[in-house]
Amino acid sequence: MAQPARGAVELVLSDDERDQLVAWSRGSSRFALRARIVLAWTEPGVSGDEVAAHVGVSRTMVHGWRRRFAEHRLAGLSDRERPGRPKTDLVLSDDERDQLTRWSRRAKSSQSLALRARIVLACAKPGATNKNVASDLRVHESTVAKWRRRFIDKRLDGVVDVPRPGRPPSIRPDKVEEVLAATLEQVPESATRWSRASMAEKSGLSKSTIGRIWHRFEVAPHTRESVTARSKNITCGFPAQSTDVS
After folding, report:
1. CA neighbours within 13 Å on the CB side: how many for 114?
2. Residues 246, 210: Cα–Cα separation, whole Å
3. Alpha helix (H) residue ranges in 105-206
4. Which residues of 156-190 are buried (b: 16+ CB within 10 A; e: fewer)?
5. Residue 176: which of 141, 209, 130 has the closest Cα?
6. Which residues contact residue 81 at a Cβ distance below 8 angstroms, ignoring those fewer than 6 apart?
7. How crowded is residue 235: how many other Cβ atoms within 10 Å of its Cβ?
8. Alpha carbon 41 to its chain's center
9. pLDDT tens digits for range 28-68
């Protein structure tokens, strides 16, 4: 079998790196192709020609991405930033930082929102670059660029999901938060747990809407889980995306 090019450093992946590369490689984008190139390079004794033939690209390309990964690891597979286009500084107000911090701590109710909040908080650190943030959070650099840009353009509203066309939210975020807070922290006066009917009467919403809110945030009062345990998974400050329960 052909040997790697002279002077080439053997590629050894950590378990986390391999898991991430395998996940990326299952797509069909250029980024997925880069992940497949790196994974192919980790085979013992493989040559650039063999990797190129296996992946279906040029030898020059496989050596280029091998070198980028060896130098910068996962962050090296991201597209290079274009020169001459300085980024707008991302500066947070105290209220924005507090809200992003609450969102970033969500363990269950909205993991995607939590990740976006962590991205924005990381981008707001002095000297932070998209590449460094992507590496620290183990995401693609384009993902960091997207949510950084969305936050700068629309602030907190830019971090939540874009409403789907034709389905405007029918319930205000503070109303959803009110229902969830009452479900987790209170009990009805004449019963030991909330039902859809009792919560509907308290909140002024329909029973079906209460059911959709509970389902959306995986709240199940009938299981009698402790308020303390459930409260660890869902926090206050629900964004506009959470209102889409109609």
Report:
1. 13
2. 10
3. 111-123, 130-137, 141-154, 173-185, 196-203
4. bebbbeeeeeeeebebebebbbbbbeebbeeebee
5. 209
6. 129, 130, 131
7. 21
8. 28
9. 666 788 888 888 888 888 888 888 888 888 888 888 888 88
Tokens standing for residue 154: 């629309």
Task: Give per-residue pLDDT as tens, 130-158.
Answer: 888 888 888 898 899 889 988 888 888 88
Q: Which of 106, 100, 102 is nearest to 123 (CA)?
A: 100
pTM (whole model) above 0.70 = no
Contact partners, residue 196, CB within 8 Å, separation at least 6: 207, 208, 210, 211, 214
Tokens of 25: 């490689």
- Token pair for 175: 């109303």
- 138 touches 16 (CB < 8 A): yes
3-state secondary structure at position 188: coil
Place of tokens 């947070």: 92
Question: Tokens for 246?
Answer: 């109609």
**Token pair 């990797």 in the structure block, residue:** 51
